Amino acid sequence: MIAEMLRDPSLVKTKGLINGQWVEGLTTFEVENPSTTQPLARVANLGAEDAQRAVDAAQQAMEQWRSVTAKEKSSLLRRWFDLVMEHQDDLATLMTAEQGKVFSEARGEVAYGASYIEWFAEEAKRIYGDILPATTSDRRSLVIRQPVGVVAAITPWNFPLAMITRKVAPALAAGCSIVLKPAAETPLSALALAELAQRAGIPDGLINVIPGTDAAAIGQVLTSHPLVKKVTFTGSTRVGKILMEQSARGVKRTSMELGGNAPVMVFEDADLDKAVAGVLAVKYRNAGQTCICANRILVQQSIYERFLEKLTAKVSEFVLGDGFDASVTAGPLITGQAVNSVDTLVKDAVGKGAGVCIGGKPANGKGYFYEPTVLRDLTADMRLAKEEVFGPVAPVFSFENEAEAVAMANDTEFGLAAYVFTKDPSRIWRVSERLEYGMVGVNETGISSEMIPFGGVKESGQGREGSKYGLEDYTELKYICMGDIES
């Protein structure tokens, strides 16, 4: 079992966490390794009643937490960060086992996720208010920031640690408590994080974890409970819209990081080798299962063939397999259904005239693997032109000029991330300003950091995570008017 693979086997938790207590469910569900399809553990299958109890516990815990000094909050978060980094290898092992990503990528995610805890530990001491200019001589006006309240967080399986810390850390820094519903595919990472938070001394009830397979029932509780004041979600646009609709009935604050359909625009004056390297990094990371993955590669016609040749040659070097194998550079998809979804999109494109440069089908053998793929001659009538492909498939389109490239890039309801490769400074400004995306990488695809505001526009969501802006959604502004001031 998975515990035998860890230096600290006690990090493997299979129960939910409510008010500091590890709780059983009426039933359990199985977590499997997508590389091997072998079972890893059985985890408590909590439900709606457990979510109700968790919210009540979170409210009670927050009443005391909100009065804890900023410095104390900062110290506890910092201790949590230290423990996460001390257990980096064990956390990465859990992640590779239940999510499938290559071990080196998993270690990187642990460090990336921990960076949000460190960042918001520091930002906890920088929640400032304002003194406003007086309107009359006998009054003074001031503004303070207070915690928004109990936060409900629903997180995905593709980054099972970092998507949690991006929400939990700012919530705690602001003085909130949180109820977390992790993805059923990857609960072990979430539960291990919670265990380390307990060891760090974060008070009981501030972090509650509800693993379970009935996401709809748990989500209904979290969006309808009157004590929940904010709902934060990372996942599909379809589910995000449902959660927003449910939350609107209670006028809850929401922040949503939803679907993406990221274009990479490669102009004829770009450094072609850097562009190919950038596409490789942003397209095939985590087997193409990231929200800011390149979903449409737009290449100027004059360099189209050269780009395809270079990209295909690099993709041919990928080695598929279990992420624990040091020689492996590409892991599996999360489920068999995910493999089928990717293959359906590829078959649609090929059936409508796309060419396969490499890959193009599920890999043989055990596990949920899809061959790293490059497709050419894509057209607007293919589903890959509009739909997010959550897999290692690079659809390469061509364009004639800048105006056409921008129009193609913006021709989607999504607007999370976009990437541009060009050496022309004027084009950099023109294109970056015209792209309808929340984030733009110029000659760079590694744009994520705890210090930047991560988020999108249009149907890719609302709100920002990370940076100084990432704390704002967890606080409410309160204006206080002080009268009867003697001059």
TrEMBL record:
Domain (Aldehyde dehydrogenase) ranges: 22-480
Xref: InterPro entries: Ald_DH/histidinol_DH, Ald_DH_C, Ald_DH_CS_CYS, Ald_DH_CS_GLU, Ald_DH_N, Aldehyde_DH_dom, Aldehyde_DH_Superfamily, Succ_semiAld_DH
Residue runs in coiled coils: none
Active-site residues, Swiss-Prot/TrEMBL: 257
Keyword Oxidoreductase attached: yes
Keyword vocabulary terms for this entry: Oxidoreductase
Taxonomic placement: Bacteria, Pseudomonadati, Pseudomonadota, Gammaproteobacteria, Oceanospirillales
Family affiliation: Belongs to the aldehyde dehydrogenase family.
Protein name: Succinate-semialdehyde dehydrogenase / glutarate-semialdehyde dehydrogenase
Species assigned in the record: Marinobacterium stanieri
A GO molecular function held by the record: succinate-semialdehyde dehydrogenase (NAD+) activity
Gene Ontology biological process terms from the UniProt entry: gamma-aminobutyric acid catabolic process
Domain of life from the UniProt record: Bacteria
